Amino acid sequence: NAGVTQTPKFRILKIGQSMTLQCTQDMNHNYMYWYRQDPGMGLKLIYYSVGAGITDKGEVPNGYNVSRSTTEDFPLRLELAAPSQTSVYFCASSYATGGLYEQYFGPGTRLTVT
Amino acid sequence: KQEVTQIPAALSVPEGENLVLNCSFTDSAIYNLQWFRQDPGKGLTSLLLIQSSQREQTSGRLNASLDKSSGRSTLYIAASQPGDSATYLCAVWTETSGSRLTFGEGTQLTVNP
After folding, report:
1. Which of A33, A101, A106 is facing B31, going by the closest CB pair?
2. What pLDDT does residue B95 have?
3. Taking a C-beta distance cutoff of 8 angstroms, is the pair B43, A36 a contact?
4. Which stretches does DSSP call E strand in chain B?
5. Mean pLDDT of residues grouped by 10 in chain B (113 residues)?
6. Contact criterion met (CB < 8 Å) for B46 and A103
7. Looking at beta carbons, which residues of chain A come within 8 Å of B23?
8. Residue A98 has pLDDT above 80, yes or no
9. Which contiguous run of DSSP H or E holds residue A77?
10. Longest pairwise C-alpha distance within chain A
11. Which residues of B touch A104 (CB under 8 A)?
12. Residue A56 burial by CB count (10 A; 0-12/13-18/19+): exposed, middle or buried?
């Protein structure tokens, strides 16, 4: 299994541009998540999904959109990029069965908006 | 609302020392607790998962304990090595938080040769 994969690894955007961060997992996990991590800071939840067709906002959803059309994929869309969106973005997936819940992370996408 | 605190925020120790990282949480109604490691510029790697019914889990030189009633977990690292230098995060899945983990801010560990 490849686990959770993210593309691209790095990206530089100009202010006002848009882009989609890709995330795919091959573990058949129902739950998927997008976090951002600013330099020297903790993780903040942007959006999450408990299954195909279901998404919900996290702590910091403004400026982002998501969709979940399949179990495997959970892309994050940035519209009208702003310097405040400069961050490292992590995608994660989880299984939850019988009260056991474990989260797996992708390697991250480092985004700079200038 | 669940809150997770990790103390200390940073720790520097000489190689070979045994050390303890602390994690506390405010809501003891958890399903499980997960310890992660994050190397600079990298993603999070899961180290240990403790279910609410368990008291501890071990993997190599790492031992994690859980005291659910007091809202505490510790990560014990034996015979620390420079390669252990990283940020360690704990996260809990709380019964009332739906499908979301609550993360601590992490402890940045430096092991000096």
Report:
1. A101
2. 83
3. no
4. 4-7, 10-14, 19-25, 30-38, 44-51, 56-59, 62-67, 72-77, 86-94, 101-103, 107-112
5. 94 96 95 94 93 93 96 97 97 86 95 96
6. yes
7. none
8. no
9. strand A76-78
10. 46
11. 46
12. middle
